Amino acid sequence: MRGYMEVMFFIIMLVGSANADTTSSQIISIPAYEGEKVSTKIYPAVSITGQHGSINVPSAFIQKGIASIGIYNTYTYQDNMLGTGNKFKNDTVFGAFSYAPFHYLEVSIGSIESLSSINSSQSIRYSGDLRIGIKVGQKILPCLGIAGLGEILTYSKSGSSGYAGYNGDATSYTLSLLMSYNMFDSALSFPMITNLRVGYFWDNSEKLISSNENNFMPPIGKYAMGIRGDNLTLLALSILFPLPEYYIEPMLEFTSQFSNKYSSYDITEPSYNNISFNQNPVYLTPGIIFYTPVEGLRVAIASELSLSKEVNQSSGSVFITPQVIWIAGLNYSL
């Protein structure tokens, strides 16, 4: 009996040892746990154009749905030889919504409410201006998209200065080629997105004012109101660095729109007949986008820095382009 018990004990120990070895082997064979990777789904930045992308540069990628609202203000200056001059202040609220009924088609509409003032007694209110866009795009690679964007800009103004008024003939149009590259989806998997826009702007805004008003309205007023009347070439580039693990997305934009003259200005000022590229609106815009706990909701702040060269008027005044002090926006994507 004792010998039988010793044999059974030996067998149990042997089986236990085999099981322990098997369990140990199974543990060793399990791959090392790498942790849960941070989602690289990139939501759009706040865009005052109604299209997603960065603040001023739309993306070629199609987004299911976006709602955004932006607030920004500008200051336009014109100094003269005596060191005094005019300052034109503009406060603007812009709201927009876009939706993609198909994977290759995105439509958008935005509206603007703006108050521009030279002093306490002279102001112009923009109200009901619309920006309607249609974008057709396609991914040609998982990380590369191209698109065409067409926009219609209507103008409806009312104000106390006597310069403003509505004219359907002032409706303007843009047509742009967009290209976007998302390095997150490339083999490099680097947190950077670039958006490029090359386009053309058929500007009819000079028809908002009569020929008589155009004769005495100063260039600073036209510039600050966005009245020019030239067909413009559009060039813009933005770079974004999405860092979802830190809930931020730094960004940098370069934007410009240029022609060789300011058509509606040269009636009273010949200095605007032949201008250089950097005497047109040229901006560098650094900013940062904040990720919120609500999925798809983004908040952005930025400041536009004018790179434009001054235009010396024959009257002795120096025309200085607007300096956008700040931009703030809120954006939600579906």
Quick overview of this protein structure:
The protein has a single domain (65-333), classed as Porin (Beta Barrel), CATH 2.40.160. Helices cover 12% and strands 47% of the residues.
Annotate the secondary structure layout:
Blueprint: H1 2-29, E1 65-79, E2 85-102, E3 105-119, E4 122-141, E5 144-153, E6 157-159, E7 172-182, E8 193-202, H2 211-216, H3 219-225, E9 232-240, E10 248-258, E11 282-291, E12 297-302, E13 305-306, E14 311-312, E15 318-333
Antiparallel strand pairs: 1-2, 1-15, 2-3, 3-4, 4-5, 4-6, 5-7, 7-8, 8-9, 9-10, 10-11, 11-12, 11-13, 12-15, 14-15
Keywords summarizing the entry:
single chain; 334 residues; mainly beta; Porin; twelve-stranded antiparallel β-barrel; 3 helices; 12% helix
Question: Could you walk me through the main structural features you see in this protein, from its secondary elements to its overall organization?
Answer:
It is a single chain. The protein is mainly beta. The protein has one domain: Beta Barrel (Porin). It contains 3 helices and 15 strands. The protein has a 12-stranded antiparallel beta barrel with strand order 1-2-3-4-5-7-8-9-10-11-12-15. The longest helix is centred in the first third of the chain and has 28 residues. The chain starts with a helix and ends with a strand. About 10% of the residues have low confidence.
